[in-house]
Amino acid sequence: MTLEAPLVRSTTADAVTTLELDSPHNRNALSTRLMAELTAGLAAAAADPEVRAVVLGHTGRVFCAGADLSEATGDDPTVGPRGLVALQRAIVDCPKPVVALVDGHVRAGGLGLVGSCDLAVAGPDATFAFTESRLGLAPAVISLPLRPKLDPRAAARYYLTGETFDSAEAARIGLVTEAADDSAAALRTILDAVRLCSPQGLAESKLLANAAVRESFDRYSEELVALSAKLFGSEEAQEGMRAFLAKRPPRWAR
């Protein structure tokens, strides 16, 4: 029996666990298996007393393309959004700082992963877009970590237009911590600082920093899961996803 290659590669060195998304066949989309592997990797890092921080990275030119549209038509439309809520909450609740290292494209649900991380470094090849409105959807459950962090005017622009923006703009609007010409060097600076901190100090400081994000999850998770499920089941979203997969404009595009 041949074992399937992991979709999330985990390594630990120098008190840091690195979790790399490695699902090139679907551009690191948030499949059920990828989300399960990432959740397991976070739990293992959280339980390891020698680990001070977690890095969430990726292989290839895409950090994460968002939802796996091939799984978007199950019997229960809440399964996908509920799974993404749980994954985002696992990042937020991990007692270790989670740092996103983005050197590729981030779309839709992938922005929820970045937004859930405590810190995020984006390199010059990173691009970002909330593409949901172009598919008949809305950035519903990913708003749980993002609304407390994003500049409101910028959120309105990029939610409503689906425009692509770069690392510098992502830093300006609060999506990432730093836009760096050398992302690896910027990450080293952050990790070197974190290694000087105590586990208790990191865990309690993270709780303070994430107070508004945790409140967002507590208050709005069910409402936004329901919204996401309703939208994914709508005729407009079905047309948007069919058009996307067929690489054609949806019928409403002008």
UniProtKB/TrEMBL annotation:
Pfam families in UniProt: ECH_1
SUPFAM superfamilies: ClpP/crotonase
Record-linked CDD domains: crotonase-like (cd06558)
GO terms of molecular function: catalytic activity
Domain of life, source organism: Bacteria
Classification via NCBIfam families: PRK07827.1
Family: Belongs to the enoyl-CoA hydratase/isomerase family.
PANTHER family according to UniProt: ENOYL-COA HYDRATASE (PTHR42964), POLYKETIDE BIOSYNTHESIS ENOYL-COA HYDRATASE PKSH-RELATED (PTHR42964:SF1)
Protein name: Enoyl-CoA hydratase
Protein's organism: Kitasatospora phosalacinea
Gene: echA7
